[in-house]
Design goal:
Elements lengths: L14 H7 L3 H12 L16 E2 L6 E4 L3 E4 L14 H13 L6 H8 L3 H18 L11 E13 L7 E9 L4 E6 L4 H10 L6 E4 L2 H8 L6 E2 L2 E5 L6 H18 L5 E2 L3 H13 L4 H8 L11
Parallel strand pairs: 4-7, 4-10, 7-9
Antiparallel strand pairs: 1-2, 2-3, 4-5, 5-6, 8-9
Helix pairs in contact: 3-5, 3-10, 4-5, 5-9, 8-9
The structure holds zinc ion.
């Protein structure tokens, strides 16, 4: 046997670990059940603790006491309303969270022997699920500034345009967290609002240059936008801007190594997938567990 190589940083959850924990469908369902259902729940009529048992051949659990309650732990998650077995979902999520680059629908289609259209839908849902997990994170804790710069991404296709369009992306960091917000053409105002909504109230903003400062301030007469002070950086090569450009390059590489082009309408979910992994880049083993353990309310409507 080879000795453990301690210098190698753990990059994810191995397939062997996965198989041990989730050998079958039942173990996946039990995991979701343990997260989604309150074990301390008591019967409202008699006050005794409720015991749930699984309804055979269904994804639901039943508790009989003074009243009967049925709970479906998959409701409101990405797993709701699907024909695909839960075990396949879990395995697909393992690929998405272990990946160092984007996962293409054809890869998932080949791995699981599912049709291309179903595979595309699955990939989109998983990306959106990963994106939703970190949605409450706000940049700019007390006393720290939020640095904002802008980058451009190519190879984005737009409906009705033969050639790809260039897509601008706002990048932000407070030194610990990173955020990327795509700017649809002519929609800078909307992207600015998305950015401001993701900041801690009254956090100060430092833009990389004066032009970007003016753009963010466009509709605000004072030097503040929604309570945020905005200044242009004295030094556009500050370490934080360096970190932002590393983040931006990693984002573009992540998407373009596995896709020749992506659709404009999907860009948010690709960024969401990337950001989810980037946030966990030094604790890879957390990625898979976080992905199957947090279920912010999920809307299936596209
Ligand atoms: Zn009771």
């Amino acid at each position: 046997m080879q000795p453990d190589r301690k210098t190698v940083r753990r990059a994810g959850t191995s397939f062997i670990e996965f198989e041990k924990k989730f050998p079958d469908q039942e173990s996946c369902l039990a995991h979701i059940m343990s997260i989604r259902l309150d074990e301390a729940e008591v019967c409202t009529a008699c006050g005794r603790p409720r015991k749930f048992r699984k309804i055979s051949k269904r994804y639901s659990y039943i508790s009989k006491c003074c009243t009967i309650i049925i709970r479906s732990p998959m409701a409101g998650t990405i797993f709701a309303h699907t024909q695909m077995p839960l075990l396949t979902w879990f395995r697909a999520i393992l690929y998405f969270t272990n990946a160092s680059m984007g996962i293409s629908p054809s890869f998932i289609s080949h791995q699981f022997g599912i049709a291309r259209a179903a595979s595309m839908r699955t990939c989109q849902l998983i990306r959106r699920h990963l994106d939703s997990i970190d949605h409450d994170i706000r940049l700019g804790s007390a006393g720290s500034c939020v640095y904002v710069s802008q980058t451009t991404m190519k190879a984005v296709s737009r409906l009705g345009k033969k050639n790809g369009v260039r897509f601008r992306i706002l990048l932000a960091t407070d030194g610990a967290e990173f955020l990327a917000i795509p700017i649809a053409t002519g929609e800078f105002g909307r992207s600015r609002d998305l950015l401001l909504n993701r900041l801690v109230p009254s956090a100060s903003i430092i833009t990389q240059d004066e032009r970007l400062r003016k753009r963010i301030l466009n509709h605000y007469a004072s030097s503040k936008a929604k309570g945020h002070n905005i200044n242009a950086a004295d030094n556009p090569y500050d370490i934080e801007f360096n970190n932002l450009s590393v983040y931006g390059i990693a984002l573009k590489g992540f998407i373009l190594r596995s896709h020749n082009w992506i659709r404009e309408t999907n860009i948010n979910s690709y960024i969401g997938h990337f950001s989810f992994l980037y946030r966990r880049r030094h604790r890879g083993e957390a990625a898979f567990w976080d992905a199957i353990s947090y279920f912010p309310s999920f809307l299936h409507e596209q």
